[in-house]
Amino acid sequence: MQKREFFDRFRPSKKHELKPIAPPYFGGEFNCAKCNGFCVSSCKRNVIVFSENKVSLNFKKNGCNFCQDCAKACESLGNGVLSLKFDEKITAKTSIDVSTCLAWNDVICCNCQDVCKYKAIEFLGVFRPVINEKCVNCGECISACFKQSIDIKAV
């Protein structure tokens, strides 16, 4: 067995690609065939992306503030992928990479805590931020992190 073949076993394949993070008000099924991504243009924070007939969230610049504009836009087309009748939640898991986080590496930084309006980030003393059960996975902390140490993945 060649080295490349051996190490290719550990590389994520197409089957193991990350799932897209569905926006709040998501009904669980994509039926965006008759849609051109109208919900994307309705998002003033530019968090929603539309590709391959699916909507997902991208938190590189901003987080979601649950404004409902995307759901209202989708409902107006009669599409029903996003609707106010569905839960106002983002089904994902937010985590902190302690190896790159400034605060976990003895630098005073609390940007993630400062931007979190849900008080979902607590510090153990001055250092060591942890994400608590109040987290709604809005992604606001992701763009505030200098080192990009906060990540969110769909569950």
From TrEMBL:
Q: Which SUPFAM superfamilies match?
A: 4Fe-4S ferredoxins
Q: What name does this protein carry?
A: Ferredoxin-type protein NapF
Ranges where the 4Fe-4S ferredoxin-type domain occurs = 22-53, 127-155
Query: What's the name of its gene?
Result: napF_2
Instruction: Tell me which Gene3D superfamilies the record gives.
Output: 3.30.70.20
